[in-house]
Amino acid sequence: MGKGGDASAPKVAKLQLLVTERSEKQSLSPNFYWDHSEEPHVKRRADIVKAHPEIKKLMGYDPATKYKVAVSVAIQIMALHLLQGASWYTWVFFCYTLSGSINHMMTLAMHEISHNLGAKKVFYNRILAIFANLPMGVPAAASFKRYHMEHHKFQGEEIVDVDIPTSFEGWFFDSKLKKTLWCLLQPAFYSLRPMFVNPKEPSKWEFINIACTIVFDAVIVKYFGVEGLLYLFIGTLFGMGLHPVAGHFIAEHYVMHEGQETYSYYGPLNWLTFNVGYHNEHHDFPFIPGKHLPTVRKIAAEFYDTIPHYHSWSKVIYDYIVDADIDPFARTKRVRMTNEEIEDLRARGGLVK
After folding, report:
1. How many other C-beta atoms lie within 10 A of the C-beta of residue 322?
2. DSSP H or E run through 1
């Protein structure tokens, strides 16, 4: 056998194994959309860079991010002071509108920073992410970064991409009432799903994240009581649940038009969310900060303007709940890694520790 045959044999064996494993996995979750081609952003990124090489000049961090985070955290602490002694209905109102909005904004600051777009050095991005995480009341920044990097590199990959709901979610949350409940429980699914689908050994940064959160929460309880901590924590639950900003959870990748798995939102809530609504642009260029994503769309308009997109996250939530054809199964899965490769990735602690 020649050198060409020897070199190709492992590739052939892998392809044969993938065919078998794809069939097995697809048979276990037949109600999802399945597409085993490469995720769509790799090719579009190459096509855009070829057509508009100047777009690479937009890459780099945004120095303003740290100031936005600092002001947001300060507003939350000021609100704790101003709401002392407030009536319960005033407290609930501001918990949903102010705390919910700001804490969701901080989850998207963590998202921005997870791509090292908040500071020049990786270490400073780690610290900034943990600081942005503080008013949420629960540690999340370090774990989010680990899973989110895999969501980008392995979009839709069975087991690896934990952004995709489980088969149980698709089976159980199948009616308007249940889908409404699913939206309310989104914080629980978003935080607990990775532990069941693709668990990882905690890293040192996760322990640092936990320690910082405990200290911050203790200080809040000391000066503002348990009610103060509840304002932050329940605000996180409100903001990530049935809340206009939380519409991005559904809008980003739930299949509303068959054949398309990522969607952008071009509306005013981008002002509060680091332009995360420009989600096709973000996945195409994850190292361009949110402030430049509208420029990406403007430069490469011929690539984006013809793609279905949204102008209202609230409308997305409404459509998701009332449309019988859309449920947690409305996600695209793919199998391009063998089980052995997945286990090897897991043994290494993932792409990022």
Report:
1. 11
2. none
- Apex 128 CA angle, 123 and 130, nearest 5: 100
> DSSP of 109-149, one letter per residue?
HHHHHHTT-SSSSHHHHHHHHHHHHGGGSS--HHHHHHHHH
Is 34 strand, coil or helix? strand
Residue 202's nearest CA partner among 162, 147, 123 is 147
| CB 293 within 8 Å of CB 282 | yes
Is the pTM higher than 0.70? The answer reads yes
pLDDT tens-digit readout, 163-206: 999 999 999 999 999 999 999 999 999 999 999 999 999 999 99
CA atoms 161, 164, 167, 172: torsion sign: positive
Burial of 16 (0-12, 13-18, 19+ CB in 10 A): exposed
Q: Judge contact between 318 and 256, C-beta under 8 A.
A: no
Helix, coil or strand: residue 336: coil
The Cα 88–Cα 342 span in angstroms is 49
C-alpha to C-alpha distance for 333 and 353, rounded to whole angstroms: 25
Residue-averaged pLDDT of the chain: 95
Structure token pair of residue 230? 């509840």
Comparing CA positions, the residue from 108, 306, 307, 272 lying closest to residue 190 is: 108
Contact 327, 179 (CB under 8 A): yes
Residue with tokens 């607990």: 192
pLDDT reading at 231 higher than 70: yes
- What count of residues does the chain have? 353
Instruction: Tell me the Ramachandran region of residue 159: left when phi exceeds 0, alpha when psi lies from -120 to 50, beta otherwise.
Output: left
> Which residues sit opposite 280 in a β-bridge?
none
220: helix, strand or coil: helix
